[in-house]
Design a protein that fits this description.
This protein has four helices and 25 strands. The protein is mainly beta. The chain has two domains: 199 residues, no CATH class; 95 residues, no CATH class. Strands 4, 5, 6, 8, 9, 16 and 17 form a seven-stranded antiparallel sheet that branches. The longest helix has 6 residues. The chain starts with a strand and ends with a strand.
Length: 317
């Protein structure tokens, strides 16, 4: 019989305590946090409908939401598991937040389990959270754990939540990011609060920069046309800092003449590498329509795709 640990399950709008199977968690790895992602599985009558797909990347952030590293994803068959270890800058740093992004072939995620290198509680996320928080979801049949006796006992079988980078069939989310402590060990801290706050969803398959539970504006507050473009302005009066520091500004991401980039979803201001070549600086790859962030990962400098766009628009000459 599988060992179990306390975790949180959301069924409809009811928050209940469940025991998440310990066997769902991988062994720890010296490179950093290990993440296991489970795809949903149909009953026999629906075998022609695939819940499988392919994960693009998995990203780890520390307890104060600083980027720690990433790992490439993998294909998952229906009912299968993708298990990867994040190559963190500092392996022993706890992954306070995990972000998972999908490719263009939709995946229905039943659960995510995190194993921390430092031995602290890893954290668990289930598709019932996406279901309760307004995301596309479907039924699955594989148990992830058991309900506590005070909640009636029996197997806990979560729904699965869809992620899809090309948004086929109106699947809005291409990525998700969650607080690894919110749905596991800190059960009593979560009960009675908004269970959706520790998870945020993104519309592209890059890492989600915002912090779950943050009171800053979420990228989901902006319509699709804003999310899909970045403005690069040469007008002398167009400072990115002025735009970013305003509580009432709202629009697409912006690069100003001050050599700064403003993420308008989170109101975070970052220098361009051409202006200030430091760890964490960014640059726009106009050919690929991506924003790259310069990071030192595992003692190696790397330009990591941070956000993807459909259009790079120039203002001025």
């Amino acid at each position: 019989m599988a060992h179990v640990i306390d975790a949180i399950g959301i069924f409809g709008t009811l928050l209940t305590t469940v025991s998440f199977f310990q066997d769902n968690f991988a062994t720890k790895n010296p490179s950093g946090a290990t993440v296991s992602i489970k795809a949903g599985l149909h009953d026999r009558g629906n075998e022609g409908d695939s819940l499988s797909g392919s994960i693009n990347n998995i990203y780890a952030f520390d307890e104060v939401n600083r980027y720690e590293g990433e790992a490439s994803g993998c294909n998952i068959n229906a009912g299968g598991t993708c298990t990867v270890t994040v190559d963190q800058r500092t392996a022993a740093v706890r992954a306070g937040y995990i972000s998972v992004s999908n490719n263009n072939d939709a995946t229905c995620i039943a659960w995510i389990a995190v194993t921390q290198y430092d031995g602290t509680f890893g954290g668990a996320w289930t598709g019932d959270i996406g279901r309760a928080c307004g995301q596309r979801w479907y039924k699955s049949v594989e148990p992830a754990g058991r309900y506590k006796e005070q909640d009636g006992g029996g197997e806990y079988v979560p729904a699965c939540t869809w992620l899809d980078a090309d948004h086929t069939n109106d699947i809005a989310a291409a990525a998700l990011k969650f607080d690894t402590g919110a749905y596991g060990e800190n059960v009593q801290d979560t009960i009675g609060n908004d269970a959706c706050r520790p998870t945020i969803f993104g519309s592209d398959n890059g890492p989600i920069a915002a912090q779950p539970g943050s009171r800053k504006r979420s990228s989901n507050d902006r319509p699709t046309w804003m999310l899909e473009q970045v403005i690069m302005s040469n007008y002398t009066s167009h400072d990115a800092a002025d735009l970013c520091n305003s509580a009432t500004s709202w629009g697409p991401d912006f690069v100003g003449v001050d050599g700064m980039f403003c993420d308008m979803g989170t109101k975070v201001l970052t220098p361009l590498c051409a202006t200030k070549d430091v760890d964490g600086c960014v640059e726009i790859d106009e050919n690929a329509a991506t924003l790259k962030k310069r990071m030192n990962v595992a003692e190696r400098a790397a330009d990591v795709v941070h956000k993807s766009y459909k259009k790079v628009q120039h203002w001025g000459h």
